[in-house]
Design goal:
The chain is an alpha+beta fold. Helices cover 51% and strands 13% of the residues. A hairpin with a 2-residue loop joins strand 5 and strand 6. The longest helix has 22 residues, at 114-135. It starts with a helix and ends with a helix.
């Protein structure tokens, strides 16, 4: 298994454990607000592989929708188009006095069939949850391109002539009947079988089914992220789990953008922020080399900008930053080069998140996470961040030493 595949597998596994019925991970910590979280994961169902495959197939095979021959009652004059209803014709002539009126059952093609109603319901539900998922994202969310593409494709599907009638007929509050789902599942047309697959996946999410959760986690929660973002997310989830395990506090995930300025994980009194400066940041006095850089950029009309840590751990009881975490996904450079870069960044961040006389303790509680080959500490003569790699992260208690150091009250 490749490193990236292993990272996806690790993150999906943790998300799966979280969403499945609030199950504890080694210690009885409650971790699920089901009503809230099932809505989040259903939002991601709307952009999962099941819906994307269904929409793509519908766009490529627009003439695969199947109609049925039904009858509607019509009144004609002298010439009937369909089977004449003698009784209704006699009654209608008696009531209206029109001797040439004919009441007939006219044959028409209708797309309001059971399979089409299942397809239309799934498409309407997916469109509704895609819009909801978009409303949860921040301006810089990596999910925006995925959601926008999904919405564009959904609008194209809704313009298919054969689906207009079923889309108007379905109501999101009323689910397809068991007979309609059964007919769609038995259909020879792949379009309806794909609709049933997406419908049953949604039902599985609502039941907390393991396979359904795993499928959505892999194709919608994680897949849109770049390799390095996936690793950052894996580290963020891992440190949240470690803090919850060590402190015994409840773990709650705030996944992927319901509040872009909020934490992605809370674990007891700790909150983990991903790619957020947070309001705890205080600009540190510039060093001589930094002043020169600022002045050079100023001549070009460019602001210096503010670096932000990959992850910030906040102790909410103390209302202070407890640790800074720098994450490095090694693609081309050596582990030593990336570790040296990460340490330089953590030291700089410490000047902005701790008082001048408290940067040492913050540094000693901080963490550098490499995707591979993290160096081992050989001495303890000065404050230094913890060092882990992905292999250590995946071990049952790989982050417990760091979490225990963070959990000690200052």
């Amino acid at each position: 298994m490749s490193l990236d595949a292993a990272i996806v597998d690790y993150s999906a596994g943790l998300l799966l454990r979280y969403f499945r019925s609030g199950a504890a991970i080694e210690g009885g910590v409650p971790r699920l607000d089901y009503r809230r979280d099932v809505e989040v994961i259903k939002g991601h169902w709307a952009v999962s592989d099941a819906i994307r495959t269904l929409v793509a197939y519908a766009l490529e095979h627009q003439h695969e929708t199947q109609s049925l021959l039904t009858y509607r009652e019509q009144v004609h004059d002298a010439i009937a188009r369909g089977r004449i209803d003698a009784r209704r014709t006699w009654l209608y002539r008696q009531q209206t006095g029109l001797p040439t009126a004919l009441v007939a059952h006219e044959p028409v093609r209708s797309f309001n069939t059971g399979p089409n109603l299942v397809l239309a319901w799934v498409l309407r539900e997916a469109a509704a949850y895609t819009a909801r998922l978009l409303s949860w994202q921040g301006a810089n969310s990596p999910y925006l391109p995925v959601i926008e593409q999904a919405q564009a494709e959904m609008r194209l599907v809704q313009r298919i002539e054969a689906l207009r009638e079923p889309l108007r007929a379905v109501s999101l509050g009323i689910r397809p009947t068991a007979g309609a789902v059964r007919d769609a599942a038995r259909s020879r047309r792949p379009l309806y079988r794909l609709a049933v697959d997406a419908y049953r996946l949604l039902q599985g999410l609502e039941r907390g089914d393991r396979d359904a959760m795993d499928r959505v986690a892999r194709t919608a929660l994680i897949a849109p992220l770049e390799d390095w973002r996936r690793f950052e997310l894996a580290v963020g989830l891992g440190i949240g789990e470690a803090l919850a395990r060590v402190t015994g506090g409840p773990l709650q995930l705030h996944l992927l953008g319901s509040n872009s300025a909020g934490p992605i994980v809370t674990a007891g009194r700790f909150a983990v922020y991903w790619q957020q400066i947070t309001h705890y940041h205080t600009p540190a006095p510039l060093e001589p080399s930094e002043m020169v850089t600022r002045d050079v950029l100023k001549d070009y009309g460019i602001a210096t900008g503010t670096e932000r840590p990959d992850l910030v751990v906040v102790d909410r009881d103390q209302d202070a930053v407890a640790a800074v975490v720098e994450v490095k996904y090694i693609a081309g450079d050596t582990a030593t080069t990336r570790f040296r870069e990460a340490v330089n960044q953590v030291v700089r961040y410490g000047r902005s998140y701790a008082a001048a006389d408290a940067t040492g303790p913050l540094l000693a509680r901080s963490l550098v996470a490499l995707s591979r080959n993290a160096p081992a500490r050989t001495a303890h003569t000065s404050p230094a961040p913890f060092s882990v790699d992905f292999e250590t992260l995946t071990q049952p208690h790989g982050l417990d030493a760091w979490a225990a150091a963070v959990a000690v009250p200052p």
